[in-house]
Amino acid sequence: MKKKFWLLPLLACILMLTGCGKSVNDQSVLKNAKQSNTIVWGVKGDVKLFGLIDVRDGQQKGFDVDMAKHITKHILGPQGKAEFVTTTSQSRIPLLKNGNVDAVIATMSITPERKKIISFSKSYFDAGQSLLVPKNSSIKSTKDLNGKTVIGVVGANSVANIKKVAPKAKVIELQDYAQAMNALKSHQGDALTTDNGILFGLAVQNPGYEVRGGTFTVEPYGVAVNKGQTSFTEAVDKAVLEMQRNGEYNRLIKKWFGDVPGFKYKELYRR
């Protein structure tokens, strides 16, 4: 009697529930979001301009937060709700992989290493790595970092970048930007490095410091989603494109970056 190996693909398709060739994961986040009328977002809570908890009302506020709210409305309609979970550079991927959030929009650069374990939308913000130093510092660019101590944050790819451009610099990694800024203030390091938008936010909060060195990397931010969430990723891309076409995107850029000294916000405009 011949073994019926042809039954195996059929059984596999039945177990997928959503049809042969399409996994359950492909539809789950988008389907669940539509059923609950809610998308749960991972956002930063310590990054001014992008995601910062307002001590007056306990709410996260910033460009990433507003982007999440607008994307939610585009996907779910005017009554769609965006809920927020505070994340850090170190915790954002675990939160996503564990299903604590539907998506992460948290100053997260799209990199080949990260794309091996998660998926990304198309870029929604163009950042670049830079330096934050005291105004009286002799450091002007990455060329001045060898022999200096540079502060970074765990989970950010900026530390690896510094090791490439200034291999003789000492690099220390702290858990979040609040700790990193305090370390810079207490002279534990000579410069703090991460993406320019984040650094400009820190400079606004700390007038004795300024952003220098231009941008020495290209850091396209993307909305992070779990592998297999193709339909949800496409919905996010469509929402961002609609925001760019109707002017919502540029209005948010101006809202959050228009009054930041030294920030050339109009270069971020999209049409």
Automatic annotation (TrEMBL):
**Stretches assigned to the Ionotropic glutamate receptor C-terminal domain:** 38-259
Q: Where is the signal peptide?
A: 1-21
Q: What Gene3D superfamilies does this protein map onto?
A: Periplasmic binding protein-like II
Residues of the Solute-binding protein family 3/N-terminal domain: 38-260
Among InterPro entries, the record links this protein to: Bact_solute-bind_prot3, Iontro_rcpt_C, Solute-binding_3/MltF_N
Keywords assigned by UniProt? Signal, Transport
> Which family is annotated?
Belongs to the bacterial solute-binding protein 3 family.
**PANTHER family registered for this protein in UniProt:** ABC TRANSPORTER GLUTAMINE-BINDING PROTEIN GLNH, AMINO ACID ABC TRANSPORTER PERMEASE
Name of this protein: Glutamine ABC transporter substrate-binding protein
Annotated source species: Lactobacillus melliventris
Q: Taxonomic lineage per UniProt?
A: Bacteria, Bacillati, Bacillota, Bacilli, Lactobacillales
